[in-house]
Structure formats: structure tokens, C-alpha cells
Amino acid sequence: MINFLLRLFSAGTDQSLDTHKIDQNIERLQQYNWFQALYEDQKYHRQFFVNRKVREYLQSKPRVNKLINNEKARKKFLMLLEEQSR
After folding, report:
1. What is the DSSP string of 9-44?
2. Which segments in the chain show pLDDT lower than 50?
3. Burial letters for 44-83: b for 16+ Cβ neighbours within 10 Å, e otherwise?
4. What per-residue confidence (pLDDT) applies to 17?
5. pTM, whole model, 2 decimals?
């Protein structure tokens, strides 16, 4: 009973990232030349592994789909990478 209550109260506060999901989304994005160029760029490469905001962004399948299909979303993602590299 106590474990159930603890899980119930902590459900909305889980700050962990799903590394497996992020890695799958990165693999999916690497099929595209524009993403490969970003991923291999030394300026941004490290962010894909250690930057929480970038990893949170890449954890979302709908966001990844939007990156694939929408150039405006790609520009926003590049702005995020730029902002986080400062």
C-alpha cells in the first residue's frame, strides 16, 4: 500500500530520461543528411549525449517526426543547439 502511494505521488515528478528512446530517435534521424551534418559537427556533437534540453527534445517521437517533415522545426532545433552551445 505504501509503495502504491509513493508511486502515485512521484508519477508527475519523474525527471529521468529514456535513453533507449532517445538513442532510437537519434538513429532514425541519422538517416537524413541534414541531421548527420549536425550530429558530426564538433560544435554540437557532445550535446546529443550530455545536454538535458537537447536530449529531452529528442526523447519525443512527435517532435522527431516534426523534425523529419518540417524545415521550420529543423531551424528551431538548430537554434536550440546554438543556444545550448554557448
Report:
1. HHGGG-----HHHHHHHHHHHTTSHHHHHHHH-HHH
2. 13
3. beebbeebeebbebbbeeebbeebeeeeeebeebeebbee
4. 87
5. 0.77
**How crowded is residue 37: how many other Cβ atoms within 10 Å of its Cβ?**
10
Sequence spans of domains, the chain = 19-84
Q: Residue 3's CB: how many other CB atoms inside 10 A?
A: 7
pLDDT of residue 34: 96
Q: Distance between CA atoms of 19 and 50, rounded to whole angstroms?
A: 11
pLDDT of the residue at 41: 95
Q: Which three cell numbers stand for residue 78?
A: 538548430
